[in-house]
Amino acid sequence: MNELLIKPSHELHELLNKKEVSSSELTKLFFERVESVENKVKAFVTLTKEEAIKKAKAVDEKISKGEKIGPLEGIPIGLKDNLCTRGIKTTCSSKILANYLPPYNATVIEKIIAAGAVPVGKTNLDEFAMGSSTENSGFFTTKNPWNLETVPGGSSGGSAACVAASEAVLSLGSDTGGSIRQPASFCGVVGLKPTYGRVSRFGLIAFASSLDQIGPLTKDVTDAAILMNIIAGYDPKDSTSANVAVPDYTKALTGDIKSLKIGVVSDLMGKGIDNAVKDAIKAAIKKLEELGAVIEEVSMPSFEYALPCYYIIAPAEASSNLARYDAVKFGHRTPDPQDLLSMYYNSRREGFGPEVKRRIMIGTYVLSAGYYDAYYLKAMQVRTLIKQDFEKAFAKYDVLVSPTSPSVAFKAGEKTGDPLSMYLSDIATIPVNMAGIPAISLPCGFSNGLPIGLQIMGKVFDEEAILKTAYAYEQATEWNKQRPNL
Ligand code: GLN
């Protein structure tokens, strides 16, 4: 494989600047790679080759004129297919939106365009981002580049797989309960879920609005910081976007974590976590200690309730958000409706897959009169307890660590018949979304040839601390240099 295909964006940026490679050459190279591996990996729902070639040419002209280029200018990027792209199909991997052409760009897309990145295409996901394996995609399943019989994780499985398979340099995903971090962990790449409100959700097709966040999937921690610099920031178009100054995240990459206080979440190091995963996390913790961090165990008793609470709150919000797909304002319409009601019923019956229907039913139930207090309200109260557990811990520690996922990538088909066991994939990532804090997953080992991810969680708006910790660890290890042999 051409070694340009495995480089992170900051290295390619140098080469572009030195005119050792042009963006057009890079783009050609990445599309050749897509052609040779995409039939195995199936990371993309839509490829945007024409758009990409045009973009790359424009960047090359700029370089030839001697103009300065930004860090992502001319760099091939994958975009999760729940991010609205004007005039380019945005399907959410759902049949109901199979032909949807958004009339506007998501704010992050505007920012990516302004930054001059080259769009490779729109990546596959679990339908409406509901799932942990991309097996809930309404179109096809993405495969894990490390082992094609296993899943890439989800819901941003396409975004993680395209980076791992070198079909794009980096990508954007979204994370409601783990959908950036868990696929990053399964595919051996870096994935960061920013603080809720840090990145604009305008134009991100809504799943659970109080939990959704957009974030980067990259080959290394430096690239995650670079992509964060571009997408973070206040947006008046998103009422939950935070008007908080954005630092230069690359400045946090000092490599120095001496005296940093790290809490190891003991509740996520026991029952239900595979031994190989536990061993890799323990070794990572030891490495962090060698680097000068102060390590202690911390217990988060409310975590036990995070998963059941999430599966009340997320479906409740989803049932309300997905009401808009009525075949009138949006989406697939049944070909031959008998009357208005059958038009609604049949369009939604045909358009939504089984997991989405399950969530709409659960969500409608927990919000209904007589049940609202028992379920939704109760879950919101427990959500406060989770936040308080984090607040207490962060009064003592700078960052917290745990496994990202209880296991490495599982076999395709293994959990599709058992939604509960699928839901348990997110046991370590969901508490983070419930509290709105930032967290990163980065490679920290292998088991059976499959990558393991270390999760580092930080205080609200302190992405710098998690990037700093992750960078120090990455510099001291070689895990992120491993590439799948496709
Ligand atoms: N796997 C979780 C779910 O199915 C999280 C998905 C996500 O973060 N979008 O809800």
What does this structure look like?
The chain has 486 residues and is of the alpha/beta class. It has a domain at 3-261 and 468-481: Amidase signature (AS) enzymes. It contains 15 helices and 11 strands. Strands 1-3-2-4-6-5-10-11-9-7-8 form an 11-stranded mixed beta sheet, with helices on both faces. Strand 10 and strand 11 (450-458) form a beta hairpin. Helix 2 packs antiparallel against helix 3 (49-64), helix 7 (221-231) packs antiparallel against helix 15 and helix 9 (306-321) packs across helix 12. The protein starts with 8 loop residues before the first helix and ends in a 10-residue tail after the last helix. The model has no long low-confidence stretch (mean pLDDT 97). Glutamine (GLN) binds at residues 129-132, 155, 175-179, 207, 314, 426. Glutamine is lined by residues 129-132, 155, 175-179, 207, 314, 426.
Task: Please supply descriptive tags for the structure shown above.
486 residues; alpha/beta; Amidase signature (AS) enzymes; eleven-stranded mixed β-sheet; 15 helices; 38% helix; binds glutamine
Taken from the alpha-carbon principal axes, the silhouette is: globular
Uncertain runs: none
Query: Averaged pLDDT, please?
Result: 97
The major pleated sheet works out as: 11 strands, mixed
The CATH homologous superfamily of the domain at 3-261 and 468-481 corresponds to Amidase signature (AS) domain
How large a portion of the residues is in β-strands, by DSSP E? 5-15%
The H/E string reads HHEHEHEHEHEEHEHEHHHHEHHEEH
- Say what the CATH topology of the domain at 3-261 and 468-481 is: Amidase signature (AS) enzymes
